[in-house]
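Protocol step 4 of 6: structure prediction from sequence.
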Amino acid sequence: MVPEGIGRYQSPVRRVLKPIVQRLWKFDVQGLENIPPHGPAVLCPNHAAFIDSLFIPTVLGRDLIYVGKAEYLDDWKTKYLFPALGMIPIDRRGGDHAEAALDAARQVLERGGLFGIYPEGTRSRSGRLHKGHTGAARLAVETGAPLIPVGLIGTGEIQPPDKVLPVFGGGVVIKFGTPISVDRYRNRVGDRNIYRSLTDEVMYEIQHLTGLEYVHEYAGKPTTAPAVPAEPATIPTQPVPAPIPLPIRDEVDEEHAAAMVDRRLAAEALGHRPLRSLDDVLVGSGAGA
């Protein structure tokens, strides 16, 4: 269930903070028309700074419920404030530990609300875009809510890693991308191939919005692969890898085949080889490392 009192103060606080925030920083907001005026949607931003979770709700005209790491509630100063502002705490160990947060998120979407989740799972300290976890895609397929990629530019400079106080006076660009419909996958709930395909598509769109370099490693883990140029239009010179074999089924329908092709194309566009194994991570979330 959605914890009682989640987001109760977000609207009044947003009205107070919006003019203040817009005086402290210069905002360039693009694609706001891609946010539906009503009905559910899953917002998927890249994540470079703690202050991301302030900026996005500030520029929206609707309340946004989002997930943040449960450790924030260990501090008495944030234990009640953050949930009242719209944060659902999540245990980042994943699996059963995160299921309560997923259930709450699912209810937010089923009630027609906006839900925000960082696909990278934590802040990127490298200034690059990292591989996405599949929790956002899972929620979208289960509820039918569209996925909306969000590109944030400049927040890492405003609040560099390990800096508590932000730098005032900088510029922020927030780009809301075109919604990604999941309607054709509604009969594929539980299919991790679909979740990975959609997640790769979201990360591709975020890369296009931000121009960030992509690293095919989860944020917070050592990077072994070189960064990939941000321009998605670059045509690789190496031979195109062989297609990923489809799972063995009694009958493979056209929708599933199309999803696997989408997955391969998204992987190639991101500049890495097609995925040959599926990660079991079901949730990518957290307001910070």
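Step 5 (inspection) to follow. The helical segments are 10-24, 52-59, 81-84, 99-110, 135-143, 155-158, 192-210, 254-270.
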